[in-house]
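Deviation from plan, reported transparently: flavin-adenine dinucleotide complex.
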Amino acid sequence: MENNNKPVVNLISKPENMLKTIYTACRTCYSADYPINIYEAADDEEKMLKLIKRVVGSGHYSTIEHIQVSFAISNVSRACTHQLVRHRHMSFSQKSQRYVKEKGQFDYIIPPTIERNPELKEKFIEFMGKISDQYQEFVDAGIPAEDARFVMPNAAASSLVASLNLRELIHLANLRLCTRAQYEIRMLVKGMCDALVAEEAWLKDYLVPKCERFGFCDEDKSCGRKITHAELFKEN
Ligand SMILES: Cc1cc2nc3c(=O)[nH]c(=O)nc-3n(C[C@H](O)[C@H](O)[C@H](O)COP(=O)(O)OP(=O)(O)OC[C@H]3O[C@@H](n4cnc5c(N)ncnc54)[C@H](O)[C@@H]3O)c2cc1C
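Because the crystal trials were delayed, the predicted structure below was used instead.
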């Protein structure tokens, strides 16, 4: 596989009737009508969006938990997937290092800071080669892959299918599109958001870093894009 160091992300599943489903969830809370009647009568996109924006904007998040999306993800490091799996409302099925035995040089991700430095890049590649040789020696000696993998690095490339509901995706975007998140998970989450926005353009305003959503930055080391929390509430 060519290592271009970029996560490969594809949206593989989403409900066809996303907007109508969320609208029905929102309307049901404030209507005497049956949800099925609300659903079947819903045909005005502008009206649906207006209500959804108002309800979601006021923090009524259960209405967007009904929407589940799935992504096929590859060419990401184990360091990155380890960060991703910290999100507890997501579901994962990841390529196993126990069951999938590496044959030859395993795929790996080179961080851009090392990629940009030819001398260090060469050392990095050489080191990955040594790890691969050691792994193969263990496997050839009959050590099971599940134990040989103990020498594998954080750089080893991985693949997974990840699913989550829309509330969790917005939360994920808020945290991981922030410049304080590491570059790789930022690119991965941007890829997930872009793939969904390509089909559901109205979500663009929600799939943003947290500072865009809240209007201020709560990080210790702010990138300066928005006023910090401390500046916002400082006494004159
Ligand atoms: C820039 C950055 C740096 C980080 N650095 C570190 C680090 O150095 N070390 C480290 O260990 N982790 C680190 N993390 C991971 C971080 O601590 C979280 O584990 C991760 O971001 C998942 O976020 P979350 O818990 O908000 O989200 P999720 O697990 O996706 O949960 C979403 C929301 O559900 C609610 N929730 C979920 N589970 C519970 C629960 N058990 N109790 C109460 N509420 C819950 C919370 O409101 C939570 O925000 C870092 C994350 C970021 C973005």
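The radius of gyration is 22 Å. We consider this an acceptable substitute for the interim report.
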